[in-house]
Amino acid sequence: MIKDIFFLFLKSSLLALGGGFVFIGFIELEIKKKSWDSLCDIPSLIAVSTSLPGPIITNLSYLIGKSLKGSIGGLTAILGAILPPFLIIYFLAPLLMNQGASNYFVATFLRGGLIGVMVFVLLTASRWTCAVYKMGAVSFVSYVLMTALMLMGIHPLFALSIGFIVNISWGGKRDIE
């Protein structure tokens, strides 16, 4: 299973150009494909990893790997997740520095990466929106309100506080499972 964890995170990191939020969507799909979602609670691990300091990719990789196979699984997942970006930057950076964005192939590659990142971010956002919609009307309204406030330039902490207050005051006290 250690080998499977390494290659899962290697593949996910290699294909998830665009950073942590793209990686989140990609790794979530890959874990469901392997039917490992019963071994670890992905939404909870995503929430914890985004609240920890440091890169989301390494935090999430360690937490998922640790829940699958202990500390060795966590370290293996981190190695698989950081190896592709390290190698790409190490070998591709000198080429990009010499060629620059004026080269047709480099510019096309960067445009393609941008489109891929946008697709993964939109897919992840739509899954999160559907999940919040299933929680009920009050949660959905507070989610839409928080998102709108952040898009208007309001500080995220203030927007989250308003959404929390709306959810608590209109939604009432709910049992937490």
Quick synopsis:
The chain is mostly helical and 177 residues long.
Structure notes:
- With 177 residues, the protein is mostly helical.
- It has seven helices and no strands.
- α1 (2-15) crosses α2 (20-33) and α5 (104-134) runs antiparallel to α6.
- It is globular.
- It starts with a helix and ends in a 6-residue tail after the last helix.
Number of helices: 7
Strand percent estimate: under 5%
- Low-confidence spans: pLDDT under 50, at least 5 residues? none
Major sheet summary line: none
Lay out the secondary structure.
Elements: H1 2-15, H2 20-33, H3 42-51, H4 56-99, H5 104-134, H6 137-151, H7 156-171
Helix pairs in contact: 1-2, 1-4, 2-5, 3-4, 5-6, 6-7
Characteristic terms for this protein:
mainly alpha; 0% strand; 7 helices
